[in-house]
Specification:
Layout: H1 3-24, E1 28-29, E2 34-35, E3 38-44, H2 55-67, E4 72-78, H3 79-88, H4 92-104, E5 120-126, E6 129-132, E7 146-156, E8 165-174, H5 177-193, H6 195-201, E9 205-206, E10 216-217, H7 219-238, E11 242-243, E12 249-251, H8 252-258, H9 260-264, E13 280-282, H10 287-294, E14 306-310, E15 313-315, E16 331-341, H11 346-363, E17 367-373, H12 383-398, E18 404-407, E19 417-423, E20 429-438, H13 441-444, E21 449-450, E22 456-457, E23 460-469, H14 470-480, E24 494-498, H15 503-519, E25 523-526, H16 532-541, E26 546-550, H17 552-557, E27 560-564, E28 577-578, H18 580-593
Parallel strand pairs: 11-14, 17-18, 24-25, 24-26
Antiparallel strand pairs: 1-3, 2-3, 3-8, 4-5, 5-6, 7-8, 9-10, 12-13, 14-16, 15-16, 16-23, 17-19, 19-20, 20-23, 21-22, 26-27, 27-28
Bound molecules: zinc ion (ZN) (2 copies).
One zinc ion (ZN) binds near residues 14, 124, 133, 135 and 137.
C-alpha cells in the first residue's frame, strides 16, 4: 500500500475512534490499524453491543469531525505517566500495551507497532479525543478521503479466545469517491461470484464437519477436476514429463533427510507410533518422494533433464481459523513436477516451463505476471551459484515479454524462485504457480549423475507448479468465470428441453441423447412437467453452455435451434440451426480443442 494512503486510512481509524468516544462515552479501545482496503478499530463497548445498524450514526459523527478540520496534535509522555493516564482513564487495553512496552520493549500486537522508544511514547489528540499512537497521521481531519463503514464483527483481544471479546468496526477508505464506488461495485460482484456460493449452487463440491478443510468433490465438480488433470497430463506428456505416483505415508526419517522435519513437521498430520515403533508423516509435499525416485537407480547426464510429474494428494494441518472454502484447505493436489537438470540446463528448462505457463493461462483467459524472489538472508549453498542462477532467471524474465518485478530476499532458503501472479476479471491478484530452483535437497539426498567425463555430479532440482493447488485453482477459476465454465470444462454441455409428450418429439429427444453419448457430449434431457420458460431458466441457472428446445417444429424438420450462453461470444443475430449430428460433432470438437469462445 502507498504510504500516503496508509497514513490516511490509519488516521481514519482515529477519526472513527473519536466519533465512537463522542457517541458512546465510556468505551475501551484496543488497536486500530490500516488494512488493505481501509482500516478497523477493536473496541470494547462494555455492556453495550453495537451492530451494522449503528454504523450510519458513527459515519455521520465522523463526517462532522472531518468537517471540523481538527488537527492531529502530537505530544510525548514518559512511559510511567502514560501508564498512569491509561489507568486513570480506564483504558485497560492501552494500559496493557504500555506495560508490555515498558517491560519488554515490544508489544505482541502485530497490527500496531508502538515505536522503539520504551521510555517515551507519543500521543495524538483529535479535538477532545486522545489516543496512544506512534503515527504518522494526516495534518488535520479535513484531509481525510472518502470512506464507508462496512461491518461489525467480534474480535478477541490480541486474537486470543481466552481474552475478552471486543467489537471490530471495519471501514474502507479511498482518496476519491470514484475509487470508493469502484471498490464497492467490485465487492458486490465478488460476492455474486463467491466460489463457495457457486460451488453449492452448481453442486461442484461441499464440506462436512467430519473433515474440516477437506473438500468432498461432487459429480459435477469431479468432471471439472478430471478435465483439468487430463489437460495437465496431455500437455506434460507432450513435453517429455514422466508421471509418478508415490506413497502418501512415509517414515519420519524421510522428512529428516529432506529437511522438512525441522521446518514443517508441526504443520503435517502424523500417525501414532505403530507396533514397530515407527512414526509416519502424511505427505504434505511431493519433493521427498521425487528425490527417492531419482535416487532409485544410477543416472547419467543423458537422462537429464529428468522431468518427474505427479498430482498426488497432499495434507497440511492448516489452522482451523484460516480455512477458507477451496482457497485454503487441508487436503489438496498440486500439478507438481520435479525436474532434475545440470547447471547449464537451467535456463532452457525454465524457458520451457514458461511455454507451459503461457499455454495454461491463455486457455483460461487469465492475464499474468511474474515475481522473482532472490536470495534471502538465511540461505543454504554457495553464494556464487545463487548469483549465477538469479542472473539467468532475470535474463529469462527480460526475454519473456511479460511484466515482472523483483522481491529481494523472497527466495526460498534452498534457492531463488519465480512466482506466477494472475489478475482475474475483477482485477484481483492471486499467486498461483511457482517455479523454484533447489540446490539443497539433491545434496541432502546425495543424488548423483555421471557426467560426460565420467565424474559424479549433483543435479539441481526445479520444483514447479502451474495451477498451484488444483483446489485453489478451481476456486479462483469459478470466481474468474462466475461459474460459467468454457465448454470443455462444463459438467453439462448441452441441455435438451422437451416441449411436450409426443411420440415424434420423444423419438428426436432419444436420438439426440444417443448421439450425445456417441460423441462424448455431456447432455441432459429435461422432460419434466415444468413450463418451457421454466426449463430454459433452469438451463441458465445451471450455466449450461448450449441448449435446444425440441417440439413439433423440430421433430418435423429434424433441425435444432441452438441457444447459446451469452458469455460465449456467439452472434445473436445469426440463427443457429443444426442437424443433430452436426451439432454433436461441433460441440465435441469445441471441447476437444478446448476453445473458450463458441464457434457455433
Ligand atoms: Zn495513529
Ligand atoms: Zn517440490
Amino acid at each position: 500500500m502507498e504510504k500516503k494512503l496508509e497514513t490516511m486510512r490509519h488516521s481514519m481509524a482515529h477519526i472513527m475512534a473519536a466519533a465512537v468516544a463522542r457517541l458512546y462515552g465510556d468505551v475501551k479501545f484496543g488497536v486500530g490499524p490500516a488494512v488493505d482496503d481501509g482500516f478497523y478499530y477493536d473496541i470494547d463497548f462494555g455492556a453495550q453491543t453495537i451492530s451494522d445498524t449503528d454504523l450510519p450514526k458513527i459515519e455521520k459523527e465522523m463526517r462532522k469531525i472531518i468537517g471540523q478540520k481538527l488537527e492531529f496534535e502530537r505530544s510525548e509522555m514518559p512511559i510511567d505517566e502514560a501508564i498512569d493516564w491509561a489507568k486513570k482513564s480506564g483504558q485497560v487495553y492501552k494500559q496493557e500495551l504500555l506495560e508490555d512496552l515498558g517491560t519488554k520493549g515490544t508489544t505482541s500486537v502485530k497490527e500496531e507497532d508502538l515505536g522503539d522508544s520504551v521510555s517515551e511514547v507519543t500521543f495524538y489528540t483529535v479535538g477532545d479525543f486522545t489516543d496512544l499512537c506512534r503515527g504518522p497521521h494526516l495534518a488535520n481531519t479535513g484531509e481525510a478521503g472518502v470512506f464507508k463503514l462496512t461491518r461489525v464483527s467480534g474480535a478477541y483481544w490480541r486474537g486470543d479466545e481466552k481474552r475478552p471479546q471486543m467489537q471490530r468496526i471495519y471501514g474502507v477508505a479511498f482518496e476519491a469517491d470514484e475509487q470508493l464506488q469502484d471498490y464497492l461495485t467490485q465487492q458486490e460482484e465478488a460476492k455474486k461470484r463467491d466460489h463457495r456460493k457457486l460451488g453449492k449452487e452448481l453442486e461442484l463440491f461441499m464440506f462436512h464437519e467430519t473433515a474440516p478443510g477437506m473438500p468432498y468433490w461432487l459429480p459435477n465438480g469431479v468432471i471439472v477436476y478430471n478435465e483439468l488433470v487430463n489437460f495437465w497430463r496431455e500437455e506434460h506428456q507432450k513435453r517429455g514429463y514422466q508421471e509418478i505416483v508415490s506413497p502418501i505415508l512415509n517414515k519420519q526419517e524421510l522428512y529428516q533427510t529432506s529437511g522438512h522435519f525441522d521446518h514443517y513437521w508441526d504443520d503435517m498430520f502424523a500417525t501414532e507410533k505403530n507396533e514397530d515403533g515407527e512414526v509416519y508423516g502424511i505427505k504434505a509435499m511431493n519433493c521427498p518422494n521425487a528425490m527417492v525416485v531419482f535416487g532409485s537407480k544410477p543416472r547419467s547426464y543423458r537422462d537429464l533433464p529428468l522431468r518427474l510429474s505427479d498430482t498426488d494428494t497432499l495434507h497440511r494441518n492448516e489452522l482451523s481459523g484460516t480455512l477458507n472454502g477451496l482457497l485454503r484447505v487441508r487436503e489438496f493436489r498440486q500439478d507438481d513436477a520435479h525436474i532434475y537438470v545440470t547447471e547449464k540446463q537451467i535456463k532452457e528448462e525454465i524457458e520451457r516451463i514458461f511455454g507451459i505457463v503461457e499455454r495454461f493461462y491463455s486457455i483460461f483467459d487469465m492475464s499474468y505476471s511474474f515475481r522473482l524472489g532472490t536470495r534471502p538472508e538465511k540461505f543454504m549453498g554457495e553464494a556464487k551459484l545463487w548469483d549465477k542462477a538469479e542472473a539467468s532467471l532475470k535474463e529469462i524474465l527480460e526475454g519473456s515479454n511479460r511484466e515482472y518485478f523483483i522481491e529481494d530476499g523472497d527466495g526460498a532458503f534452498y534457492g531463488p524462485k519465480i512466482d506466477i501472479l494472475m489478475k482475474d476479471v475483477l482485477g484481483r491478484e492471486w499467486q498461483m504457480g511457482t517455479i523454484q530452483l533447489d540446490f539443497q535437497q539433491p545434496l541432502r539426498f546425495k543424488l548423483k549423475y555421471i557426467d560426460k567425463d565420467g565424474s559424479e555430479k549433483t543435479p539441481i532440482c526445479i520444483h514447479r507448479v502451474i495451477y498451484g493447488s488444483m483446489e485453489r485453482f478451481i476456486g479462483i477459476l469459478i470466481e474468474h468465470c462466475a461459474g460459467k465454465f468454457p465448454v470443455w470444462l462444463s459438467p453439462e454441455q448441452l441441455r435438451v428441453i422437451k416441449v411436450k409428450d409426443d411420440p415424434k418429439v420423444d423419438e428426436l429427444c432419444a436420438k439426440i441423447m444417443d448421439l450425445a453419448q456417441e460423441y462424448g457430449v455431456r447432455a441432459t434431457l429435461d422432460d419434466s412437467s415444468n413450463s418451457v420458460g421454466k426449463k430454459i431458466r433452469s438451463a441458465e441457472t445451471w450455466k449450461v453452455p448450449y441448449s435446444v428446445v425440441v417440439g413439433d417444429k423440430e421433430s418435423e424438420s429434424g433441425k435444432l435451434p441452438l441457444r447459446i450462453r451469452g458469455d460465449l461470444g456467439a452472434d445473436e443475430a445469426v440463427e443457429h440451426v443444426y442437424a443433430p449430428e452436426q451439432l454433436m460433432e461441433s460441440i465435441a470438437n469445441e471441447a476437444k480443442e478446448r476453445v473458450s469462445r463458441s464457434s457455433l
